[in-house]
Amino acid sequence: MITLYTFGPAWGLPDPSPFVTKAEVLLKMAGLSYRTDSNGLRQAPKGKLPYIEDDGERIADSTFIRWHIERKYGIDLDRGLSAEQRAIGWAFEKMLEDQLYWAVVEARWLDDENFAKGPKKFFKRVPAPARPAVIALIRRNLRSRLRAHGMGRHARDEIVALGTRSIDAIADYLGQKPYVFGPEPSGTDATVFAFTAGLLCPRFDTPLRTAAERRDNLKPYVARMAARYYPDLTQLAGVAAAA
Ligand SMILES: N[C@@H](CCC(=O)N[C@@H](CS)C(=O)NCC(=O)O)C(=O)O
Question: Is residue 16 within 6 Å of ligand 1 at its C-beta?
């Protein structure tokens, strides 16, 4: 049995981390049975979630998890797609993971109001006297990681402009198709769904959420994916699941 290490559901999302949600959807798409464990961060091979344990083998990073399950279980999550579509899928995934992600981190972790409504609650287990110092340290550390990436060097309105451009690219490419590449979901949908659901999450007031809400096709897309992969969640990120 595969174990997927997660943070655990939060804010009406399957997981606050889009990478964890992506990995979970990939496991569901592959039809593999798995269990989740939300106590694995300290032992994470790369210091991040998700990772999985499969027959004693630990695989970290959502992309390597995908490659592992495809190789080990002989599954092609992009079956039926052309080489051109696979290339576009890869480019979209990395746009979301390596660019848009950092705009979302900025909005959730560095904006004081959003931080108080969301990530601050992760620190409830830290003893109260130490909590303010730990929170300040983690937020300082994130600020320098954002600077190191490059996103953190931009003004907030520039970050929002970059994020909005990515959101528009997804919405324009999706158009009226049910899934990114047509009538059936493929591996790329795991990533696009995870990030879009996170953007639409009503817990946070962000210009990125407004940009996603402005695009008529994104909520129905999240609802469609939720109905298929999270049928037990009647509301996902405030969106009612729909076939
Ligand atoms: N490239 C990784 C990114 C994973 C990632 O950034 N995970 C974040 C949560 S969204 C994490 O575990 N952060 C914990 C930390 O940095 O301490 C993947 O695709 O899995």
Answer: no
